[in-house]
From TrEMBL, chain A:
Its EC number is 7.1.1.-. NDH-1 shuttles electrons from NADH, via FMN and iron-sulfur (Fe-S) centers, to quinones in the respiratory chain. The immediate electron acceptor for the enzyme in this species is believed to be a menaquinone. Couples the redox reaction to proton translocation (for every two electrons transferred, four hydrogen ions are translocated across the cytoplasmic membrane), and thus conserves the redox energy in a proton gradient. This is NADH-quinone oxidoreductase subunit K. It catalyses: a quinone + NADH + 5 H(+)(in) = a quinol + NAD(+) + 4 H(+)(out). Keywords: Cell membrane, Membrane, NAD, Oxidoreductase, Quinone, Translocase, Transmembrane, Transmembrane helix, Transport. Belongs to the complex I subunit 4L family. It is found in: Cell membrane; Membrane. It is an enzyme of class 7 (translocase). GO terms for molecular function: NADH dehydrogenase (quinone) (non-electrogenic) activity. It comes from Sphingobacterium tenebrionis.
Length: 101, 676, 180
C-alpha cells in the first residue's frame, strides 16, 4: 500500500526541481517547463488526496481542470515568448531588463 | 550795462571763473585757446570794476548770507561780505589775473597740456575770488584749501619734470602745516565766540564787538594759529621754502601766485582777522616778518636763477607786509600788497618773456645752458628794449624809487615802523632799522638782476642770437601792469603816501603817535640810499670786471664767494633746505625706518607667530575634521551608499531575481512560522 | 511489488526532471520532459486516477510538448549551434542561490510532511472509516463523466470557455504583425 506520504515527498521533490528551473534557467522555454513541473507536482497532490474522496471525485476533477489550465497557460506563455523573441531577438530573461530602475 | 546790486555782481564775479573751469574741464583738449577762461576773467574784471568796487569803496558795507547748514542749534551761514577790504582785494585779483590770462595765451601757446592749464587757472581764480568774498571763516577755509589745491596743480603743471613734482609736493606739504594752523584757529575761535561769521565777530566795520574776559590765553593761541596759516600761505620764515621751488611751474603761474593770489591770501587773512590779535601775537608777527624780510633779501643777493631772485624778493616783500601788520598798520600792509601785486606781476611776466627768448635761443642753436640763469644773459637791452623799460619800472618800484607805487607803499611801511619803534623804544627799534637795511639790499639785488640781464653784452657766444621783443599779446598786459606800477594810479602826490586812496579807505586810529619829521626824512633817505646802491651795482656789474664774459663773471663770483662765505650761504639759501632735509625729512625717514623695522620684526613677528600658531591649530583641527569627523560622516555615507547600492542591485529588472527574492522571503516567513 | 514499481516511476520522474534542469542543451531537455510527464502519468495510476493519467499523456505529450518544441524551433536561433555544440560541458553549472533556495524549500516541505504525518485530517479518517475511498475496482471514467455533467457542470463550462479564450488569446498574441 502506497501511503499519502510517498506521493507528498515525490511531489515536493518535483516542485523543488520546477522551482529551481524557474529561478535558474536562462531560457524562457525552460522556465515554462519548470512551471509545468510545479503544476504537475500539484496535480499529483490532488490526485493523491482525491483517492479518499469517492463521493465527489474532487481530486481527479480538479486535476483535470488543472491540466486544462496548464495547457492554456502554456499556450499563452508560448505566445508571449514568441512576442518577446520578436522584440528582443532573445529568449534569455537576463537580457530583458526593462523593469530595471 | 545792467545795474546789478553789488552782492549779485560779486556773486557773478566769483561764479564766472568757476563756470569757465567747468566748461574747460568738459571741453578738454578741444579748448586750446583758453578763450572761455579769458572771457570769464574779463567779465569778472569788468563787473568788479564797474559794479562792485565803485559802489562799495568808502561806502556802506554790504552783507548777505543764507543759512548753509545746521549742527544742533548752531546755524552755519554762507554769504558774501563786501567792504573796503574785500572789494579792493577782489578788484586786485581780477586786475592781476586778467593780464596773466592774456599773457598766457602767447606764453603757453603750443604746450601739450594747455587745456589743463586753462582749467587750473580758472579754478585758481575762482578759489581766490571766493576767498576774498567769504563772509565766514569756514567758507574762507574752503576757498583757502582750494587755492592751495589749485596752486598744487599749477606748480606741478609740467608733471613730467621730476623737480616740478617735488616742488608741488613740497608746496602742498608745507601748506598743509599752515592749513592745520588755520583750522585750529577757526576751531578755537568758534569755541570762544560760537560763531564764525566775520560780521558777527568783528562787527560791520571790522572791530571785535565783544571780547570775553579771561580768554587772553585762548586769544593768543588762536592768533598764533591764524598766523601759522598765513605763514605757510604767505611764505614766511621758516615755512618759506616752498615758494622758491614753486618756480618750477610756468612763469605766468608764478606771477599769479606771487602777485595777487596765493601769497596775498595770508596777508589778506591777517588783515581780515586783524582785530583778533593781541599784543603778543602782533609782536610775534612783526618779528617773524622782519626775519623773513631780512633773510629772503639776503638769499636773493647771490641767486643766479632769475625766477628765484624774484621769488626771494617776493618773500622779502611779504615780510614787509607782515611787519606792517605786526606793528598794527595793516592798512599799509594792504597798500603794499596792492602795489606789490602789480609790479611783481610785471617783473615775473617780463622775466617770463626773457626766459621765453632764452629758451628759443637755446632750442635754435641747440646749446646746453640754463635759460633761467642770469649769468647766461646780458645786453638784452638792445634786443628787447620795451621789455627793458617795463622791467626797469617794476624794478624801480620794487626798490622804492620815487614816482613809483612801490615808493609810496614801502615808505608807508617804513614810516609806520619807525614811528612804532620810536614809541616802543629800546630793542624794538631794531625792526625798523632792519627794514631799512632790507630796503637797501632789495635795491642792490634787483639792481644786480637788471644790470646782469640787460647791460653788458650777451654771454652766450653765438652769431645772430635772434632774440627779439615779446609778441604783442605778451607785451600788452605788461604795459598795463607797468602803468599800474606808477604812482598816479594810487595817489596824485608822488611823494606822500598819505594821499593814497587805498590808505584813505582804511583810515583808523593808531596806537602810536605820528612823527611828521619822518615823513620827509625817510623817503629822502631811502631814495638817496637806493640811488647810491644802484650806481654801485651798475659800476660793479655793468661796467666793472664782472661785466665781461660769462667765464670771467662766473670766476669772479666764485672768487667772491670763496672770500665771503656769507655769499655762499646766500646762494644756498642759508642751507635751510638742507637743514630741513636733515632735520625733518631724514629724521622722519629714519624714524620711519625704525618704525618699519619695529613693524617688520616685532609686530610682524608677533603676527606671524600668532599666524603660525593659528595655522598649527588649524592643522590639528583639519586633521581631526578630516579623519574623525569626516571619517564618521564618510563611514555613514559610505555604508548608506553600499546599502543603497545593494538594494539598487535588487532592482535589476530580471524577473527571475524578483521571483527568487519573493520566494526567499516566503521561505523565511515559513521558517519563522515553523519556529515561532 | 507495487511499491517497487512506484519507486521506479518516482525515480524515473525525479531523475528525468533533474536532468531536464541540468542539461545545457535545450532540445535534449525538452525531450527529457516527455519522460518526466510519462513518469508522472505512471504515478497518477498509483493514485488510482487512470483517466487523469490518460489525459496527462494526451494533453501534455500530445499538445503542450509539441507546442513547446514548435515554439522552441521558431524562436531559438542558436538551435543549430546548440545541436552542433559538442561542448565538454554536458551539464550546466548549478546556480547556487537558486539551488540554496530550492533546497530550503525542499527541507521545509519535508519537515512539513513529517510534521503532518502525526495527525491525518479528519475527513480522510472519516472517509476511510466509512469506506468512501476509491478502490482499484471502481469505474472511474463513468463516475467522472457523471460528476462533470451534474455536480461540476458550471466549472466545466467555465473552464471550457476559459480554454477557448486562452487559445484565441494565444493565437492573437502569436500572429504576425501587420506590415504597416
Amino acid at each position: 500500500m502506497i501511503t499519502l506520504t510517498h506521493f507528498l515527498v515525490v511531489s515536493a521533490c518535483l516542485f523543488c526541481i520546477g522551482l529551481y528551473a524557474v529561478l535558474a534557467k536562462r531560457n524562457a522555454i525552460m522556465i515554462l517547463v519548470g512551471i509545468e513541473f510545479i503544476i504537475n507536482a500539484a496535480i499529483l497532490n490532488l490526485v493523491a488526496f482525491g483517492r479518499y474522496d469517492k463521493i465527489n471525485y474532487g481530486g481527479q476533477v480538479f486535476a483535470l481542470f488543472a491540466i486544462v489550465l496548464a495547457a492554456a497557460a502554456v499556450a499563452v506563455g508560448l505566445a508571449i515568448i514568441l512576442n518577446v523573441y520578436r522584440k528582443y531577438k532573445s529568449i534569455n530573461p537576463d537580457n530583458i531588463t526593462d523593469l530595471r530602475d | 550795462m545792467m545795474n546789478l546790486s553789488p552782492i549779485v555782481a560779486s556773486l557773478l564775479v566769483v561764479i564766472l571763473p568757476f563756470l569757465a573751469f567747468l566748461i574747460q574741464a568738459m571741453l578738454g583738449r578741444r579748448s586750446q585757446q583758453g578763450t572761455i577762461s579769458l572771457l570769464a576773467i574779463l567779465l569778472s574784471c569788468l563787473i568788479s570794476a564797474t559794479m562792485v568796487f565803485p559802489k562799495i569803496w568808502n561806502q556802506d558795507t554790504q552783507h548777505q548770507a543764507l543759512t548753509w547748514f545746521s549742527i544742533g542749534t548752531k546755524d552755519f551761514q554762507i554769504g558774501f561780505l563786501l567792504n573796503n577790504l574785500t572789494s579792493l582785494m577782489q578788484l586786485i585779483v581780477c586786475l592781476v589775473a586778467l593780464p596773466v590770462h592774456i599773457y598766457s595765451r602767447a606764453y603757453m601757446k603750443g604746450d601739450p597740456g594747455i587745456h589743463r592749464y586753462w582749467m587750473y587757472l580758472s579754478l585758481f581764480c575762482f578759489a581766490m575770488l571766493l576767498l576774498t568774498m567769504a563772509d565766514n571763516l569756514l567758507l574762507m577755509y574752503i576757498a583757502w584749501e582750494l587755492v592751495g589745491f589749485a596752486s598744487y596743480l599749477l606748480i606741478g603743471f609740467w608733471f613730467h619734470k621730476e623737480s616740478a613734482v617735488q616742488a608741488n609736493k613740497k608746496a602742498f606739504i608745507i601748506n598743509r602745516i599752515g592749513d592745520l594752523g588755520f583750522l585750529l584757529g577757526i576751531a578755537s575761535l568758534y569755541s570762544i565766540y560760537g560763531t564764525l561769521n566775520l560780521v558777527d565777530l568783528f562787527g560791520e566795520h571790522g572791530f571785535l564787538n565783544t571780547v570775553p574776559p579771561d580768554s587772553s590765553g585762548w586769544m593768543t593761541f588762536a592768533g598764533c594759529c591764524f598766523f601759522l596759516g598765513a605763514m605757510a600761505k604767505s611764505a614766511q620764515f621758516p615755512l618759506h621754502v616752498w615758494l622758491p621751488d614753486a618756480m618750477e611751474g610756468p612763469t605766468s603761474v608764478s606771477s599769479l601766485i606771487h602777485a595777487a593770489t596765493m601769497v596775498a591770501a595770508g596777508v589778506f587773512l591777517l588783515s581780515t582777522v586783524f582785530p583778533l590779535f593781541n599784543t603778543t601775537v602782533l609782536l610775534i608777527i612783526a618779528i617773524i616778518g622782519c626775519i623773513t624780510a631780512f633773510i629772503a633779501a639776503y638769499f636773493a643777493l647771490a641767486q643766479q636763477d632769475i625766477k628765484r631772485i624774484l621769488a626771494f624778493s617776493t618773500i622779502s616783500q611779504l615780510g614787509f607786509m607782515m611787519v606792517a601788520i605786526g606793528i598794527g598798520a595793516w592798512d599799509a600792509a594792504m597798500f603794499h600788497l596792492v602795489t606789490h601785486a602789480f609790479f611783481k606781476c610785471l617783473l615775473f611776466l617780463a622775466a617770463g618773456a626773457i626766459i621765453h627768448e632764452m629758451a628759443h635761443l637755446k632750442a635754435k642753436h641747440q646749446l646746453d645752458f640754463d635759460p633761467q640763469d642770469i649769468h647766461n644773459m646780458g645786453g638784452l637791452r638792445k634786443y628787447m628794449p620795451k621789455t627793458f623799460i617795463l622791467m626797469a619800472i617794476a624794478s624801480l618800484a620794487l626798490a622804492g624809487f620815487p614816482l613809483t607805487s612801490g615808493f609810496l607803499s614801502k615808505d608807508a611801511i617804513l614810516i609806520n615802523a619807525l614811528e612804532w619803534g620810536m614809541q616802543q623804544g629800546g630793542l624794538w627799534l631794531l625792526i625798523p632799522i632792519a627794514l631799512i637795511i632790507v630796503s637797501f639790499m632789495t635795491a642792490f639785488y634787483i639792481g644786480r638782476l637788471m644790470f646782469k640781464v640787460f647791460f653788458g653784452k650777451l654771454r652766450i657766444n653765438v652769431e645772430n642770437p635772434g632774440i627779439h621783443e615779446a609778441p604783442g599779446q605778451m607785451l600788452g598786459p605788461m604795459v598795463f601792469l607797468g602803468i599800474c606800477s606808477l604812482f598816479v594810479v594810487f595817489s596824485l602826490n608822488p611823494l606822500s603816501y598819505q594821499q593814497a586812496f587805498v590808505l584813505k579807505g582804511f583810515e583808523f586810529d593808531r596806537d602810536y603817535t605820528e612823527l611828521h619829521i619822518l615823513h620827509t626824512v625817510v623817503p629822502l633817505l631811502m631814495s638817496i640810499g637806493s640811488i647810491l646802491i644802484w650806481i654801485w651795482a651798475y659800476r660793479w656789474y655793468a661796467q666793472g670786471e664782472a661785466g665781461g664774459s660769462f667765464d670771467k663773471l662766473r670766476m669772479t663770483e666764485s672768487k667772491l664767494r670763496m672770500t665771503f662765505p656769507l655769499l655762499q650761504l646766500s646762494l644756498n639759501q642759508g642751507y635751510l633746505n638742507e637743514f630741513y632735509q636733515k632735520a625733518f625729512v631724514n629724521s622722519t625717514v629714519q624714524f620711519s625706518n625704525g618704525l618699519y623695522w619695529f613693524d617688520r620684526h616685532i609686530i610682524d613677528g608677533l603676527v606671524n607667530l600668532a599666524g603660525s600658531l593659528v595655522r598649527a591649530i588649524s592643522r590639528i583641527s583639519a586633521w581631526t575634521d578630516r579623519y574623525i569627523v569626516d571619517g564618521l560622516v564618510n563611514t555613514i555615507a559610505g555604508s548608506t551608499y553600499y546599502l543603497g547600492h545593494l538594494l539598487r542591485w535588487v532592482q535589476n529588472g530580471r524577473l527571475q531575481n524578483y521571483l527568487g527574492f519573493a520566494f526567499t522571503v516566503l521561505l523565511i516567513g515559513i521558517i519563522y512560522l515553523i519556529f515561532k | 511489488m507495487e511499491l517497487v514499481l512506484f519507486y521506479a516511476f518516482a525515480v524515473l520522474a525525479i531523475g528525468s526532471a533533474l536532468l531536464v534542469v541540468s542539461l545545457k542543451n535545450t532540445a535534449r531537455a525538452l525531450f527529457l520532459f516527455f519522460v518526466v510527464l510519462f513518469g508522472m502519468a505512471g504515478l497518477f495510476l498509483f493514485a488510482l486516477a487512470d483517466f487523469v493519467a490518460i489525459t496527462q499523456i494526451m494533453v501534455y505529450v500530445g499538445g503542450v510538448l509539441i507546442l513547446m518544441i514548435f515554439a522552441f524551433m521558431l524562436s531559438n536561433k542558436e538551435l543549430l549551434a546548440d545541436l552542433q555544440n559538442t561542448s565538454s560541458r554536458f551539464l550546466s553549472m548549478p546556480n547556487w542561490q537558486s539551488l540554496l533556495l530550492t533546497l530550503g524549500f525542499l527541507a521545509v516541505m519535508i519537515y512539513g510532511i513529517i510534521e503532518w504525518q502525526q495527525h491525518t485530517p479528519n475527513w480522510i479518517t472519516q472517509n476511510i472509516h466509512k469506506g468512501q475511498v476509491i478502490l482499484p475496482s471502481d469505474n472511474n471514467i463513468n463516475q467522472l463523466g457523471i460528476k462533470f455533467m451534474t455536480h461540476y457542470l458550471l466549472p466545466f463550462e467555465v473552464i471550457s470557455i476559459f480554454l477557448l479564450m486562452a487559445l484565441i488569446g494565444a493565437a492573437h498574441l502569436s500572429r504576425k504583425e501587420d506590415k504597416q
